[in-house]
Structure formats: structure tokens, C-alpha cells
Automatic annotation (TrEMBL):
Pfam families: AMP-binding, AMP-binding_C. NCBIfam families: PRK07787.1. This is Acyl-CoA synthetase. Belongs to the ATP-dependent AMP-binding enzyme family. Coiled coil: none annotated. CDD domains: MCS. It comes from the Bacteria. InterPro entries: AMP-bd_C, AMP-bd_C_sf, AMP-binding_CS, AMP-dep_synth/lig_dom, ANL_N_sf.
Amino acid sequence: MPEPLFPALARGSTREALRFGDHLLTYDDLAAVAAGLARELPQGRVAVWATPTVHTSVAVVAALLAGVPAVPLNPKIGERELAHILADSEPQLVLAEPGVPLPEGLDGVPRRDIPLTGGGAEIPEEPDPETPALIVYTSGTTGPPKGVVLPRRAIAATLDALEDAWGWTDGDVLVHALPLFHVHGLILGILGPLRRGGSVRHLGRFSTEGVAHELANGATMMFGVPTMYHRIAGEVGTDTTLADALKSARLLVSGSAALPVHDHQRITAATGQQVVERYGMTETLMNTSVRADGERKPGTVGVPLRGVEVRLVGDAGEVIEDVDTVGEIQVRGPNLFTGYLNRPDATAAAFDGEWFRTGDMATRDADGYVRIVGRKATDLIKSGGYKIGAGEIENALLEHPGVAEAAVTGEPDDDLGERIVAWIVPSGTPPAEDELADHVAKLLAPHKRPRVVRFLDALPRNDMGKVMKRALGA
């Protein structure tokens, strides 16, 4: 029989597994309620209205125990996207927190409220490792969202590789406030602690006060996205309670987008802590990470995880061996998805043999540390014969005192091919455009200076904190 995805559930204990505000479930509680719900689920796919609650966690665990693919739905989803996902995945049931209204688009799908008590059924036998566990939909930036079919094998492989990289144990208590319809918040942030036999405290809504309270009261790890760490970086220098709480953490992890070097530096200066970055995608789960026991290099996403192979490939398909040379990241390993639901064409196009084409561009240094320079489609700017990564320019701009937030894109230029455009949220009075261009040229190189500067009140971001650069271009 395959190894259980959650050994601690099978063993049972009175240790805390999940805490969301006043809702607390021990491993015994979770096993009872999830196993009971698992026995009621149909054999087809089930949708989960993924509010940031203990109910969502119970529903996903129940589906995993039953061997039924779960389709997490973003509670902020729009009508068109919801209709597409429902038509594509054809769920037989939607699991939802009691009392939460669902949109009209779900009227045709039977609803089952998620219980927090009851049960008593035995945990079902562990399904085959290749059984689809989750179908997570991509953000749909280049067309309708695609359903990424993630097998149990990929979830187990990623979480066990992170155990190795981060020294993750059953003694760790994780705090986070991430959404639960995505890989970061759901698989790493909920299923990760449960696989280790540790516990997770979800804040429901992010606040620096909430993070400080949990880290000062037993939490050992924090997961966040750059927007969260940016708020921490802005407050930690003057908030001694926050600084002391962060100092006590065993590990601070940032993901889903690049954490600006300036924010790394501010957090380290106030706390002595160095935030760990990792790199993953919906299709691959986790690929690389800075190791807890390794050298911390701000601005990098570390080295390949155990069992994961990573290579960089040039425009002509050649494998790049030289250090500090830009290429597309390709990945293979047990962490990969099995395909896009109902899209064999897209699945075939996503692979180069056994290697998954990530679409992310990066360099690798002499120690094997990967530094992502951006998405091939939106963050690699070809200007004046140079390949320029948007990320390093963004980091340089953020070192200017007049810049609160920055994003960099390229736009067509008759002379250069593409010109560099900086989108700036100023900190106070907007700096002069020439001043920002000269600042970048001095720190990096003249050909990397922005040719155009546009000021905004805020950068458009998705629920995971990523800047939506296509919206900037529009």
C-alpha cells in the first residue's frame, strides 16, 4: 500500500493541526471530520469555494482522503472565468463554508456545506500516487485559465523536498495569511504542515500585528508574498515588538514573486534575519530554494531541490553551461504535473521532451544559485542588442528614496527594438525622470536605464501580490 499523504492523520493525536482564529482542530478532530466527509463525496471532481477558513482546509483534506480531485475556486472569481472553469472541470459538487453565499454561476452545481464536527468513519485506503489530487487553474494571462492536474506524487515530492531544504519538522508551527486557492497558500501553507505533523495558524487576513503575535507565541515559521514583506520592511525599523517577534522565527520564507533586495536589506538590518526565497509554479510546484542550512544570497531563489533537475536553455535550444548567462528555466522531476485538463495540445507544447518549459528567464552563478530575471513574455527586454531582465532594474529603482514601488516593462522602439519603461509609485514627491534614469545607469549600466518613466498611484496586482504587467501595457 502507498505511504499515506498525511501520516499524522492516520496516527491521530491531540496535537493542534489547524487554527483559524477561534476555530481549532487537533489531528484527531481533523481525521474524524475529514474522513466522515470523504465517505460522502462522489467519485467525480468536487469544487471547493476556497475562502481563507478552516472549512476550506477540511474540504481539501477530505477530498484527498477520498482520492477525489478537488478544484479550488477563488472567492473573488469573475463570472466569465467561473463559467469557463465549471464547463472545463465539470464538478459534481461544490463544498462551501456554511452560510457563505455562492454566485449564480454555481446554481447548477449541488452544494454541500463543510462540517467541522462529527465523522467517526475510518480513513479510506491511500490512493495510487498518480491519482489526480488537485486541479488548480492558472491565472489565464495568455488566454482562458488552464486546469493544472496535480497528482498526489507531485505534492508528496515537493513537500518532502522542502522538509530537506528547510529542516521542516513536526515541531514547526507555521503562520501565514495566504489565499487557499493557490499552490503557495494551500499546498505549502496547509498541506505542508499536515504532512510534517506540525501545525498551521492562519490569520485570515494579513497584518503585521497578527504575524508578530503568532511569532511571539510559539510560531516558528512564516510564509508570505513580497507585498507582505514590503509592509514588514516598512514597519520593522521602528516597531520593536515586530522586530523582536521576527528575530525569534526559525525561518521566514517569501515566494510567488521576487522579493526586492531593498526589502531583504531592511528586514535583515532590523532583525538579523535573512528571508529565504524559493521558486515554483502551479505546473511544477517547487523547483528551487535557498536552503535553511546554506548561504543566503538575497535576490536569488537558491539551488534545485532534492530530486528536481533544472537547466537553462538558450533561444536556439542549446543548454547553457556558462555562469551569469540568461536562459529559459526548464525543469524535470517528480514534482511535475501530469498535464492540462482537456488540453493535450497545450500539454505537448509545454514540454521539451521530458523537460517542462517554465517561460521564466534566469541566470545561474558559480555556486549553482538561480537568479530569475523575469518572464520570457513580459520581463525580458531586448534593447539595443542586449537582453535585459526587468527584475534587476526594479531592484535598482527601489534603492532610490523617492520610489515606493516599481515595475519595469519594454515597449516597441524603432531604434532600440524595445525601450525600457519604468512604472513608479512615488514615495512623496515624484522624482525627476532624468534623476531616476541616471540612478539606474550609475548602479547598473547606461543601457539599462529607463527611457520612459510613468507615475502611478498603485501597481495592479493579483491576489498573490504579483504585478500584472499586461495590465500596465494596456
